[in-house]
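step 3/5: co-fold with magnesium ion
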Amino acid sequence: MATVELRNLRKTYLHEEIIKGISLAITDREFVVFVGPSGCGKSTLLRMIAGLEDISAGDLLIDGQRVNDTDPARRGVAMVFQSYALYPHMNVYRNMEFSLRLAGMPEAERRRRIGDVARILQLDPYLDHRPGQLSGGQRQRVAIGRAIVRNPRVFLFDEPLSNLDAALRGQMRVELASLHRRLGATTIYVTHDQVEAMTMADRIVVLNRGVVEQIGTPLELYHRPRNLFVARFMGSPAMNLLPARIHALTPDGMAQVQAGAVSVSIPTRHGGPEAGTAGTLGIRPEHILIDPQGAITGMVTISERLGAITLLHVRLTDGQMIVVQTGGDNTDRADTPIRLTLGEEHCHLFDADGMALAREADHPLLSDL
Amino acid sequence: MARTRTRLRQGVVTILGWAIALWMFFPILWMFLTGFKNEPDAISTPPHLFFSPTLSSYRDVFAREDYWHFATNSVVISVLATVVALLVSIPAAYAMAFLPGPRTRMTLLWMLSTRMLPPVGVLVPIYLLARATGLLDSRTGLIVIYMLTNLPITVWMLYTFFREVPVPILEAGRMDGATRWQEVTQVLMPLALPGIASTGLLSLILCWNETFWSLNLTSSIAAPLTTFIASFSSPEGLFFAKLSAASTLAVAPIMVFGWASQKQLVRGLTFGAVK
Ligand SMILES: Nc1ncnc2c1ncn2[C@@H]1O[C@H](COP(=O)(O)OP(=O)(O)OP(=O)(O)O)[C@@H](O)[C@H]1O
Ligand SMILES: [Mg+2]
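step 4/5: write tokens
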């Protein structure tokens, strides 16, 4: 049982505000992922929760208790660092034992706990190895083991997999997810990796320049980005964004949108856009269909074949570039003409300030979330 | 062709290296040899390359002065000054390396700048202070002075070594519940041990060889080996053989010590370079 609540947290270095008032309530057993561009303050926020960084203003509550001024170890949080930060002068056993020894746990109990954790993480054969003698993946396991032996209320991870190669990262991702299910500890996880964020998170927090852009489940962020920043940030390949103008608004809420040579009508909610305003039209690459009767014409400039899917980079007749995702068996080559249609129900419309305009229909998956 | 040329170059470099090393070592070798001559041999020009070695100078030296008294002073003063210097500079370097403030850099530079003063510039005030506090000709007096004059160097060296320690490791210690004391003694110090050891070695050597303050602040009770050497150079004219024997006796312990620990010393001094 551990909840974490951030109430208007702020961090100021000298005169620069790095974290500008972040509020967030994390429920028990939740897996929350922080994402955002480099330098947006993810690590700083995580370190404030850990107790490694002072909190300039606001309140941090763990299980309802204010812990702003509590020592890291007393907060009941454990952290896994990007660089693993193992104690190089201690073997694996001693690395995991350190916190237990400092806490004054009896020898037998320590041995039992470390034995359990080593079994879960398959570290038994390496208990008397020094970190220097281990591979990256094994070091990562030790770092995780060092965090779990303490039985913390909250786990903090700062890009724990970023030093591993792609294959190992995929494997560790699955292991971490199943570990989370098994231990059920509240977890806050910082990452750069879209796949990690989408697959592991219960909720994703998108940060930008010290503020929260959006909080939501992975699919919410993917299908219903609140603004242009989130639309751009979530998803790979990224959403196509075309400067657009709203021409007309029919009484039943259909917005006639013109973006260069592309013309679509998007169902919006009442009180949405006004006719004649500028905005941005967004459409994900997988929602553009190749259609011999399509109204949108262009030339394929590059075809990226990824095996399972193919990404076509298309130059529209008005000169704009868009990316189209299609099947791996696509045969369109560079420098051939192509006709496309947009799935209108999948289009996103953003106003001149970059805020998303509410759509009438939601993604079917979102209704049962 | 290219191979022979590199080999040739290697040969030249090797010979040059040996030549420079011998040239630098020569005075020490000469001193060592002179200690085993009798006085006429010692001052003869041209010097006798072959002579019958004798221990008479050593016998004279031991007869005139109580070598062990001086040697004990040297050991006690150097070791204690080094220990106290480390006790003071480890926390100082920790604070400067891991909790720097806006003035840390200036403080470090200022500390180092005090080493640039010629000691004689502060001889009178220090002498008067030592007299007023009753520390003239006392081991405590020299320990305090040595410790203080070496602090800038030990703090700087430790600061440099500590900066090499990855901060996340210390933070991991903090997350694991280490107090500041445990963080320093159980995480930082084991990690920086090579650096701490070489800092201690350097401090020992500096203390052992310090001459100015020992000559001016001690006379008999607390006099270390540097004073012992000096006592052979003045009153009844120069006796080169005896002086050389005394010098050899004075530098031998630290030379043996330095040689025994040279691996440690080199490792510490190049710690940052190779990592
Ligand atoms: N000790 C510090 N003093 C001053 N500014 C700092 C300090 N630590 C971090 N910053 C600044 O705070 C901002 C956020 O840094 P932070 O490390 O939290 O970013 P991040 O989101 O984790 O980035 P990355 O994805 O690259 O790890 C950066 O602009 C950084 O320059
Ligand atoms: Mg970071």
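step 5/5: annotate
Residues A 13, 18, 36, 38-44 surround adenosine-5'-triphosphate (ligand 1) (CB under 6 Å).
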